[in-house]
Every structure is written in structure tokens, then in C-alpha cells.
């Protein structure tokens, strides 16, 4: 274990603290803001770990989140998925494929791509409940990716985040059931 690895794990801890807060956030804007900040620290950790596909996914995710924040500020919140939203999703997926090609390092490096693709779909939705539900399989994918890149704290904290997202989803489901009654 060298100093670079230790610093990578410090950035991982900061990343996961921010991500855990997203699963307890009440608005989409709060989720996107917290996630955007966490992507900067996560990208730094992946640079230090030499996890280039993970870094590429962080960059795509940062651009995705900036667009979402800009679009919401310019056009306001919308509860409907529009043609523009579908085009945005397609563009993000194409960008993910393009940046994965030069960073590909075996099948396990694709776990970050699958996690980012599913997360992008979840945040693209207009429902925080969908976001919280998708956090469960996304968490599993990141858990395995962190194991692949040998991020000890990434594995430990992804497990905690997975638990947090499960709790957030359960709380959201209970809230919706109470509202319907």
C-alpha cells in the first residue's frame, strides 16, 4: 500500500458520504447536485487507482448531470418524459460507448459502464422512487467494480450505500402507500 492508494481511498470515502446523502434527498435537484460533487471526488479516486473506464464514466456522468441541472433551470421541472429527454438519453448512451472503447480492460471493466447506464436511466426518470429502486442494482454493479479495481473502501462503502439505497426505496414506497390511503 502506497501513499497514492491511501489518497485514493480518502477520495472514495468522501465520494460515498455524498452518494449516501443522495438516497435520502427529497428532490431530484438535490440528488443531481450531490451526485455531481461526488463525481469529482470519485474521478480523482479513479485517477489514483488507474481505473480508466471508471474515470471515463465519471466524466460522462458529470456532463450528464450538468445538462440535467441546466435543463431543469432553463425549462423548469417536468413530470413528463419528452422527445428531448429521449434524445438526451440516447446521446449519453452513445457517448458512454465511445469513451469505453479506448478504456476497455476486460469484461469486469464494463461493470462501471453498466452501472452508469442504469444510473443514467434512473436519474433520467421523473420519479425519485425509480431512482431509489435502481440504486439497488447500480450498487451491486459498483460493488463488484470496486472489487475489480481493488478499492477496499469502495467495496465497504458501496455495501453501505447499497443498504442506504434499499432503505430509501422502502421509505419512499411506504410514503407512497400512505399517500394513496
Question: Would you write up a description of this structure?
Answer:
- It is a single chain.
- This protein has helices at 3-22, 28-49, 52-75, 83-103, 111-124, 128-148, 152-180.
- The chain has one domain (3-180).
- The model has no long low-confidence stretch (mean pLDDT 89).
- The radius of gyration is 16 Å and the shape is globular.
- With 181 residues, it is mainly alpha-helical.
- It contains 7 helices and no strands.
- Helix 1 runs antiparallel to helix 2 and helix 3 packs parallel to helix 5 (111-124).
Summary of the model, kept short:
With 181 residues, this protein is mainly alpha-helical. It is 83% helix and 0% strand. It contains seven helices and no strands.
Q: What are the defining features of this structure?
A:
0% strand; mainly alpha; 7 helices; 83% helix; 181 residues
Please indicate the percent range of residues in DSSP E strands (runs of 2 or more): under 5%
Number of helices: 7
Uncertain spans: none
Inertia-based shape: globular
Profile the largest sheet.
none
Mean pLDDT: 89
Taken together, the total number of domains comes to: 1
User: How are helices and strands ordered from N to C?
Assistant: HHHHHHH
Distance between the termini: 55 Å
Structural class: mainly alpha
Cα gyration radius (Å): 16 Å
Number of strands: 0
User: Helix proportion of residues, in percent?
Assistant: over 70%
Helices and strands, with pairings:
Blueprint: H1 3-22, H2 28-49, H3 52-75, H4 83-103, H5 111-124, H6 128-148, H7 152-180
Amino acid at each position: 500500500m502506497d501513499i497514492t492508494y491511501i489518497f485514493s481511498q480518502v477520495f472514495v470515502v468522501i465520494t460515498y458520504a455524498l452518494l449516501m446523502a443522495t438516497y435520502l434527498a427529497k428532490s431530484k435537484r438535490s440528488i443531481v447536485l450531490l451526485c455531481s460533487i461526488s463525481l469529482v471526488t470519485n474521478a480523482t479516486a479513479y485517477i489514483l487507482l488507474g481505473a480508466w473506464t471508471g474515470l471515463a464514466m465519471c466524466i460522462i456522468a458529470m456532463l450528464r448531470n450538468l445538462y440535467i441541472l441546466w435543463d431543469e433551470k432553463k425549462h423548469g421541472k417536468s413530470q413528463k418524459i419528452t422527445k428531448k429527454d429521449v434524445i438526451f438519453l440516447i446521446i449519453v448512451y452513445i457517448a458512454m460507448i465511445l469513451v469505453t472503447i479506448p478504456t476497455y480492460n476486460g469484461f469486469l471493466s464494463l461493470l462501471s459502464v453498466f452501472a452508469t447506464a442504469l444510473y443514467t436511466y434512473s436519474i433520467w426518470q421523473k420519479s425519485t422512487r425509480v431512482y431509489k429502486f435502481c440504486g439497488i442494482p447500480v450498487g451491486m454493479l459498483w460493488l463488484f467494480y470496486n472489487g475489480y479495481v481493488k478499492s477496499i473502501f469502495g467495496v465497504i462503502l458501496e455495501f453501505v450505500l447499497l443498504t442506504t439505497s434499499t432503505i430509501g426505496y422502502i421509505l419512499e414506497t411506504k410514503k407512497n402507500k400512505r399517500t394513496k390511503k
